[in-house]
């Protein structure tokens, strides 16, 4: 069997941008899987209409994946998608609530496809091809087993012609030939763009589908056996294949004439096979298929009709979760699918930069010294209009990065289903505010953290059904995901109605590990809950494969803090636990405290600033080793002189004449000496450029109101430095 | 002086095809020496700007400037070449370069002299010297109007070849 990383066939490796095509395939396939996976859950619900609708979308997505995979000779993917497609079709024929094991099978298919695509990506040049041949073998074997199971599941039935008719519409750029190979449970259906489609579609966009379609039919073994004894058909096939070759190699450009010839060749082929097959019109096709009660023996049907293009569907709003925002007038109420284009992030970034520059330049131009004091009524009018447009452009650009948090939430459905099934708990997932929009990058970065939290909630929070009944709760536990805006933050709340955190257990464990003081009665609940964020902390008596190893919450906190967010846990024993994530709306802006040291200005993220004050001489202690410590309300903090950290000049070296700022990170604190606190402001974070990269003690920079640059401090680095010093002295 | 440079620069900032920049070079001066830099890497040339010092980086990286909202690191080419540092004046220029591997960077030079066309056939290999390793910054010598100019290698100027990297 061909491996997923098999080299493109000889026909194809002449194609100059083969890599490009594979790259596109990877991108498209992954995003297709991403979009359609949330739909699988609906197949297990008792909603026939939703099943019908979603199975159609799933089918279409898998179908186009199969087509391109076939074209690129990724046979394993083609086989797998084919079997999945057949299963989908079986479901469509009898749309009813699907049992768990079917859903599992489909999910497994998704995982397998991701694995296979991952392998292809690995094999692409330019990536480090790790020694993972064994790994890809495992995936391929797994896939073959899955294919077998899929075959058993859907039985060996043919794909129903009707289904394609259901997908069809009259105004399509395609002409479709369906070839049903009943006895082999296989279908070839080939879309080839109509000649007039070239008016609306650029040539480059249809080369792959056209050539792919031709190759798919020509390479089909059943089809090959069919034409073997037919000289006329063989000749036609030969010529079509030469055609395809020439198109691929670029020797022949795909124009109206070529398309027309291709169509006439296929029709001639149908004619040539006339005795072996019957050609049906669309109407005849559907009536014939409808009246048929058993598969026709040993015949191959070719029918011809129009189908719609496989349009790109975006499923930001899958069935059942449609909390549409009424902000877009163009958004149709009848369709939950909205069209989208994929854009490289680097292009978006460049656009943001350019719009930023545009705004700056516009301000400079309008306030140019050359025109100050001049009365220019016409100019001012145009300038005002231009200003408005610029602002609109800016806000549209910003919104391009936003996506509803729903894309994150719906993925939790699968997590809930799998984990609850494995631990034998009954859990219902509820969502609030799924239409809240947030930075797409943030959504991606939050995924792992949210999975951890939801997993913990099910494994540790929600009780087993009989325990819940004993406690007077309903059998099914509820996990509620909520999203809302608060100020410049987006707040995501995960609430469960499970057993809650056990203070005694956590304290016992924390004391054992030596992270809690022996006398811990004085600790507030919040301080106790914070122990669960300690690395390796777990109170689970049994380590399950789901959670309980104590890796998780500390990683979650790290992830959230990397996004400059905060995580907060509250819990009541027996009632439930709430985990609140608070993250700045975009990665780009934050509140800072501006300070000055000598002529340099620094910004400290306001989230880490606890207090600033001028110390009194009596509170400062200097150890024999020169470590400076200041006492604030009976707590000692190490002092870090910023001018020393950055080796620069400052107004004062006398602690009592400067200002100390207490910074905090992970409940660890240190004092930073500065000359002056300038104030607070909200700012846009910029990186210190690709060239400089990351600098110790700094997390980026910002543009100050006078156009100069301020450096943003990294409290984590500073505190670590202060602590290291303290340790060297004290140990 | 300035206006002469400006006119010369317009020759390539004017939406020109990259191919036409192939033989164009920006000539800059450090002390008495003149050097030539491939124009294809040059985005624009600006006068001296306020530089924000970035701590804990290589000494030749003077800091960052705000160029219409973009943060651009600036290098002092004198320091990079191991020459004596000198105070900046109104002839000091920052050549903003754009290089795939390094992004946008600014090169601080004493002055920008002109933009010239140098044909590939007029360029010869740089002399091999044992004196220091500064020759790695040169990629060739060009004879132009009977003056020999050193063509600098943009990539090696920008590359961080010293131990200790840029920062931790």
- Helix/strand class of chain B: mainly beta
Let me know the largest β-sheet of chain A: 6 strands, mixed
**Helical content class of chain A:** 40-55%
SSE string of chain B, helix = H, strand = E? HEEEEEHEEEEEEH
Categorize the overall geometry of chain A: globular
Q: Quick check: average pLDDT of chain B?
A: 80
How many separate domains make up the residues of chain A? 5
Using the coordinates shown, work out and report the CATH topology of the largest domain in chain A.
Heat Shock Protein 90
Look at the structure and give the CATH class of chain B. Mainly Beta
Q: How far from one another are the termini of chain B?
A: 42 Å
Amount of beta strand of chain A? 15-25%
Describe the overall structure.
Chain A is built from 22 helices and 22 strands. Chain A has five domains: 157 residues, Four Helix Bundle (Hemerythrin (Met), subunit A) (Up-down Bundle); 126 residues, no CATH class; 56 residues; 182 residues, 2-Layer Sandwich (Heat Shock Protein 90); 142 residues, OB fold (Dihydrolipoamide Acetyltransferase, E2P). In chain A, the strands form five sheets. Chain A has a six-stranded mixed sheet. Chain A has a five-stranded mixed sheet with strand order 6-8-9-11-10. Chain A has a five-stranded mixed sheet with strand order 20-12-13-22-21. Chain B is 12% helix and 41% strand. In chain B, strand 1 and strand 2 form a beta hairpin. The longest helix of chain B has 12 residues. The chains are: A alpha+beta (731), B mainly beta (168). The interface between A and B is medium-sized, with 31 and 25 residues.
